[in-house]
Each structure stands twice: as structure tokens, then as C-alpha cells.
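Q: What structure does this chain adopt?
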Amino acid sequence: MLTHISNIQHTNSGNFFLLAGPCVIEGEKVSFEIANHIQKVCHRLEIPFIFKGSYRKANRTRLDSFTGIGDKKALAVLQKVGRSLCIPTVTDIHTKEEAALAAKFVDVLQIPAFLCRQTDLLIAAAKTGKTVNIKKGQFLSPEAMQYAVQKIKENGNNNVLLTDRGTMFGYQDLVVDMRGIPTMQKFAPVILDITHSLQQPNQSSGVTGGKPQLIETIAKAGIAAGADGIFLETHPNPNESKSDSANMLPLDQLESLLEKLVRVRKAI
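A:
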């Protein structure tokens, strides 16, 4: 299992690493289906892989949105996937109390973008000793993320990752500024989220939509700009996914995308 950032930062292939999986854990069967598929592709392409799945979605747009199958049940699925396939796992946490709970089941704790400045949450995550992946808030500059990293490191944990998912301009769009990648790499390894960065609010319903046809464009640009890792959400049938279906990458398109990104990586 993952204990230090260096385990995923450096590989013999010199490749980027990948955080990928469903938006939310929907059950054991589909989680293993997704993880098995990604693992096989990543093994062939020599891409270090961390399985991603939120055990609970706390920041839903609508009150009736799906939030999960139950905290401990979902965390147990994540743990089983990790142990069975010998791969590290990552999940989101939302409060300081969740840090210690989730740390018992996964290898990486992820701080959602809207919570990236929450000092108590960052300190609690740091004190678990787990690697902490902090998503950059849509409302923050890349330079401002150095303070979130400091909060982790000043609490005795040097295993920090940063993930960019774009910056909000106006009310309807996220824009990824590739200049943010080298800027934030001064503070920690940088991952580019290539699915959430394409989210757009639906003007009529308020439900988040997306432009999955642009995933490849954003991904290629990120790798060309030197991103250390890629974050994406994928599902065998995105239309049937219970969360964030509008901007997910169909699982059967993953291999082709990663092959292209590997070629870009080798070219630079």
C-alpha cells in the first residue's frame, strides 16, 4: 500500500500517475469492475494507479441527490478493493472527525475543493500520517495553495499532493489555467482533474452538467504542461451512474485516452 508520495511520483517509465474510479462507491460489484479494468490498462502502460471513490457525497446540489450506500459499508468496499488488487485507494473527507475514520480504510485522504482552506480539517488529515491530496478551490489562485500545503507540513506530514480542477469565471464555467501547474509544483506534486474541470451548472435546473467530449483536450494540455498526475472519474455506464454522470469518462474509452497521454508524456 501507499505510504509515501515517492511511491507514486517516481516510476521506471517516468510516467504520470493516475487517480481514477467512480464518483461515489455504488456497490462492491461495480467498484471491482472499474478497478480491475483500470488496473489492467495501467499495468500495461506502466502508469501508477490509485483507485478513487467517494464513500459519501456531502456537497450535492439537490437535497434528493444520491449521497452513498452508507459510510462504513462504502469504506469497507474501498478497503476490499485495495487489499484484493494490491492498489492504493483514495477518498474524500469533509470534517475533521471523518479523517481518522477514513484513514483506517484508505491510503490517501482527499480534501474537496470547497474545503481546501479549512484549517481543522487539514490538520486532522495531516495527523493521520496518510498522504493528503488537496483540491484547489475554484475561488483561489494557484499561489494561495502554498498555505494549505504549509498547514499539512507544519503538522508533521510531508506527503502532500495538490489537484487543480479549474477556476470559476462568472457563474457558468470553469477554466483551467495551465500556468497553475508549474506554479503549484513549487509547493507539492500537481494533479490535473480532467473531468470535474469540465463541469457547468445547468441554467434551468441548477444540476451540474459537463462537456465530456473535451476530456481528452484538457488531459493532453495538462500532460504537456508537466502535470505529475491525472485525476478522472469513470464508469461502465455513465448515464446510469448515481453521481456526476454528465462529465464522466466512459470506462471503455479510458485505454485509448491513456495511450495518447503516454505518448504526449514521452514526447516532452
